[in-house]
């Protein structure tokens, strides 16, 4: 399937969706296709200029589309709270936690978190928790967190989420993406224990040309690395539109299971949406509980009504697909 249109996803009219990082790449395609299906879409982006431009592009391409920009900086918890407080309406059918940064040099968010963990996981953890009452109050709602196959590079350490002991840019990225999956796992467990119908699922785009690969080297002025990333993308990456398909599947397909992980069918690299491989540690109940506790402590966001499940254990046998 080379592309996917809103009609393929079913009628999205009456649904409200928030997509983070929707000014480019996977996020922009996801927001556009949800709007094509008739959903009201909020593009939650850090840059007002790029966010407004993206929303205008969607409305220009799809006359009558309900797409609006609202500012959200996941590297600043005050911005996350302001976004949640300022979001109009009580209904929220879909939250796509998509925004992310990749392989940056060591840095800190406004709140002092390591940048990749702060943006990719902790910011989204806070956002999801603050929007949880609306999600719980909307029948059929979903939270879709975008991870990566590179989650397999490293396990997150709840005792050292900010990589104080040692920092490697790719290790930190892998930890943040593994934290995305472990967060989804623990959220799904808590929702099930509470008897909620809210579905928490994850997806990844495979190797898609989203521009994320060139961001860090371009920011650092590494011209050779930037050029090499562009060449590799041109040679082997699938398009951003194709990369968005697993996210759209997790967000809209009937029967998506809680704690499922969807990616491209061909070795997780490219192709139509299919169940994806995931590292065993992203299914570790005890690790999920520790990550959750650390995330609540660092962000100050507590998920009211979703108590710890208890009985955490390590998975045995093969990875769940």
UniProtKB/TrEMBL annotation:
<protein>
    <submittedName>
        <fullName>Putative oxidoreductase</fullName>
    </submittedName>
</protein>
<dbReference type="InterPro" id="IPR002347">
    <property type="entry name" value="SDR_fam"/>
</dbReference>
<dbReference type="Pfam" id="PF00106">
    <property type="entry name" value="adh_short"/>
</dbReference>
<dbReference type="GO" id="GO:0016491">
    <property type="term" value="F:oxidoreductase activity"/>
</dbReference>
<keyword id="KW-0560">Oxidoreductase</keyword>
<dbReference type="InterPro" id="IPR036291">
    <property type="entry name" value="NAD(P)-bd_dom_sf"/>
</dbReference>
<comment type="similarity">
    <text>Belongs to the short-chain dehydrogenases/reductases (SDR) family.</text>
</comment>
